[in-house]
Amino acid sequence: MDQFYVGLGAVIVRDGKILILKRSPDKDFAPNRWEIVTGRLERGEGPAAGILREIEEETKLKAEVIMPVNTEFFYRGSEEFPMVFINFWCSYIDGEVEMSWEHTEYQWIFMQDALQNPELKTFHESLSRIMALKPHLPDGFSFG
Which backbone phi and psi does 20 adopt, to 5 degrees? Predict the structure, then answer.
């Protein structure tokens, strides 16, 4: 059986905005690009636990998983690196962003602005799915 990797992404919502991070110029894949929190599943780890670990490692934030919103398949750089990717909708719980070496900047931006950002195009389907859930959310919940 061919090996493949499982990638994880987190759309973290806080006060109607989502967290985006700028990848370090030292990254081997997509350097200097804006993204949501991303990472890879480790052996023996469940996807929800994996994305919470990635959030804490990359930002020091505490968050909770609301639900998975999208799955995709792509080749990360080449056909030698096939990846299944799961994006999660997460809710901010606590903390201030402290970036790891993997990122150089961060911003909290409105969902609509993220959907207009071409650098975040990879995540637009996940963001659109979260927005489609908006009518089903409790009163007072806002994406800005």
Answer: -125, 150
DSSP state of 24: P
pTM of the predicted structure, to 2 decimals: 0.88
Instruction: Residues 5-136: name the CATH superfamily.
Output: Nucleoside Triphosphate Pyrophosphohydrolase (3.90.79.10)
- For the chain, what are the domain ranges? 5-136
Query: CB neighbours (10 Å) of residue 49?
Result: 14
pLDDT tens per residue, range 17-43: 999 999 999 887 778 899 999 999 999
Amino acid at 84: V
In 70-97, which positions are buried (b, 16+ CB within 10 angstroms) versus exposed (e)? beeeeebeeeeeeeebbbbbbebeeeeb
| DSSP tag of 143 | -
Single-letter code of the amino acid located at 102: E
